[in-house]
Amino acid sequence: MEEFVAHLLNACTLGAIYALIAVGYTMVYGIIKLINFAHGEIYMTGAMLAWWFVTSLGAPLLLATAMSMAGCALVGALLDRVAYRPLRKSGRLAALITALGMSLSLQTLAQLVFGARPKAFPDESIPPFFTSGWKVFGTTLYGKDVAIWAAAAASMAGLDLLVRRTRTGKAMRACSMDPAMAALMGIEVNRVITLTFMIGSSLAAVAGVLYALKVGGNIEPRMGYYAGLLAFAAAVLGGIGNLRGAMLGGLLIGMTQALFAGFVSSQYDFAFAFAVMILVILVRPFGLLGQPEAQRA
Amino acid sequence: MSRRNRRVEWFTLAAVCLAVALVPLFYGFRGQVPSTVLKICIYAVMALGLHVVVGLTGLLDLGYVTFMATGAVLTVVSMVAVADPETGTLIIPVGGRSLRGAEHLFHFPGSYLLVLALAGLVCSALGVLRGLPTLHLTGDYYAIVTLGMAEIMYIWYRTAEWTGGPQSLWLNPPDVPTLFGYKLYYDSAIYYFLVLMVFTATIIGSIHLRDSRVGRALSAIRLDPTAAMACGVPVSRYKLTAFAVSGFIGGIGGSLFALWSNGFSAIGMEVWESILLVCCLVLGGIGSVRGALLGSVVLVALGEILRQKVPHYSSGVGLVWKAWPPEARFLFYGLILVALMRFRPAGVLPDRVAGDPFPPELARAWSERATSLFRLGPSRKEASR
User: A100, B97, B200, B360: which one has the fewest Cβ atoms less than 10 Å from its Cβ?
Assistant: First the structure.
């Protein structure tokens, strides 16, 4: 029982982090139908930048996170402007290859700039609340888990409100329904896309910081690759293009992986998550909350 | 396809093969240059294997490294497998240790050719097996599923016991296979010419495949699967054929690569290797045989050059010799992919010989003109939105 609760708490935390990355994937896919491979690298950049702000500028963690969110929003907007916008008119394969290229470049760049050695936030920068714990069902519930859930829930509730209740959100929904028609209605599609990239990227930055806090380090250039791939799996699982689907998918994929790691084998947990992803694509490519799309010849 | 273009193509490719054959005259078989040339040839073979799926069939396969790894691991494992002198059971010595007095199980005359064929056939079966569930996928989803499958295989090879796991399996001198009584060392003449032969055969085979009935069927599938099906092309069967051929070539390439790198290390078979192969195709021009060759020459050579020591300016000391970190090449690969898609999406050396008889852009323009002329409902552009 204790073991199960402990694994479940871990699983929820991992799921919340994946969900935060997956919403970025799904928002971009919803509008420009691009698998933004580099999104995982943005998540890595977020953690890296926050670490750099904390260690070299001495910024407190919260401020560093905010700065890294801003930095990642900038990187995301640049990514769109430099790499993806010129390709709007060309095929989806060209855009996918570009995304692969950007992912590869960003990852290597991070390795050249920050080095391959895994980094951790210094202990004194972590608020005491994160390390405090309470006994729950015989296991310890750490403050960091609670903080991660709260941060993830707040960001996603905010995002959901933004998309459903504001004018900007309405423009985003219009663009994802039909960019051409949205443009005819006077919506600046490119500006909306840039905004989408910025929002998704700043959420990915939050996820990066939260992950580093959760595992106590492991900020390294390669961290974005698997996380990005699994977040994509989460987006597909929930129905790609569907915001709430991505949150659900993220939770499910994260929990599947963490529970598999806890109970079956921690060596093959990623392999299992990938297998789930492949099965979802093969069996239900439109996801749990998505609508099947008629095939057009 | 004009006769002249075809003659030019054959002449170019023959010149390439001849150039590879003449390298040892100037540089011998040992050292940096022939070793790089061999690596280029092996990558070109694998790039041509990938070309069957990416270039001809038009499916972005991001998991080709699986075939490379499988071919390599089969070769190395069968070559180092020995019988335990006491119990007679099969042992795979991991980490480069060798057992005194143990006898190799798979060393007999012609055994390497058998292993080569076996690597090809196993990978071919793997390709079909991987292709069966993904037959109905196209575009992004096919790419992601192949990537996921490659990741699973990578994780398995990295943790399994028989592949050496995270450790390497080295080919010690007694383990190196023989061909016609000569040891196939990575710097031996016989190995050089074996690679050259496979390289030449792959090029000839690729051209014939492209110009054959199968190649035309695959091109039809790439241009429009539905239309191809309507014209009586058995799409699934031809796709499986493409997967099988592609896997076969990948397995052969992997086997040769294992000899080149003198062993197998699962860690070195990451998915980025398959992205490198995709990059080779993209650089030269997807769908072009000459392009695949050009891509492998440029990118493999670039990787080797970046491994050299280059002068760096350092304050105080002046110029120091430092090597780029080995990962730096991936920065260039990534930027090359991005820049090509932006400025030259058809690649540097697009295949005029195999140019689509009816490129999609042209088709769209024509259909639009036709609809606007005859007022047959909304234009295709509007309908597709």
Answer: B97
Q: Mean pLDDT over all residues of chain A?
A: 87
Query: What is the domain partition of chain B in residue ranges?
Result: 3-354, 361-385
Q: Which of B134, B337, B345 sits opposite A100 (nearest CB)?
A: B337
The ipTM is: 0.86
What's the mean pLDDT in A153-172?
91
- B145 CB neighbours in chain A (<8 A) are 278, 281-282
Calculate what percentage of chain A has a pLDDT beyond 90.
Answer: 30
Domain boundaries, chain A: 2-283
pLDDT for B239 equals 94
pLDDT at B241 over 90: yes
List pLDDT tens digits, range A206-233: 999 999 988 887 888 888 888 888 898 8
- With an 8 Å Cβ cutoff, the interface of chain A facing chain B consists of 35, 83, 86-87, 90, 92-98, 100-109, 111-112, 116, 178, 180-181, 229, 232-233, 236, 267-268, 270-271, 274-275, 277-278, 281-282, 285, 296-297
Alpha-carbon span B153 to A277, nearest angstrom? 15
* CA torsion through residues A163, A166, A170, A171, sign: negative
Q: What is the least distance, in Å, from the CA of A239 to any CA of chain B?
A: 13
**Around Cβ B343, how many Cβ atoms within 10 Å?**
8
| CATH of the domain spanning B3-354 | 1.10.3470
- Structure-token pair, residue A225: 């690759």
CATH for A2-283? 1.10.3470
Backbone angles phi, psi at B345, to 5 degrees: -60, -20
- Write out chain B residues lying below 8 Å of A107, CB-based: 330, 334
Which pair of tokens denotes residue B313?
């300016």
